[in-house]
Design brief:
It is a single chain. The protein is of the alpha/beta class and 114 residues long. The protein has a single domain, classed as Rossmann fold. The protein has four helices and four strands; from the N terminus they run H-E-H-E-H-E-H-E. It has a four-stranded parallel beta sheet, with helices on both faces. The longest helix has 13 residues, at 37-49. It is globular and about 30 Å long. Keywords: ATP-binding, Helicase, Hydrolase, Nucleotide-binding. This is DEAD-box ATP-dependent RNA helicase 5.
Length: 114
Amino acid sequence: MARTTEVFGIDEAGRGVAVGFLGLAIGNRVLVFVLYKKEAARVETMLQKRGWKVVSIHGDKAQHARTKALSLFKEGSCPLMIATDVAARGLDIPDVEVVINYSFPLTTEDYVLQ
């Protein structure tokens, strides 16, 4: 499978532009990485208010909530998942078509999807 990586620099005032890229991902499974747990919850809430079907996984969620979110994402009933790098580490998620790094990682290896 060929991968294409594009990097767009977006300042804090332009974060809405990153959300605009989600429109390109309609019909695809999209994984959005964020740096912090609170940021994951904030982005999930923001996208839900805009009408997106979205779930998140991060360290502040109970294990059963993370498991349910991952299941909904994998089966495709919720095609958009927000995740911190620590929560997503080691997960096997097939058929992810789009990966968005909403906030830049502290180390780039953290956000490389295998």
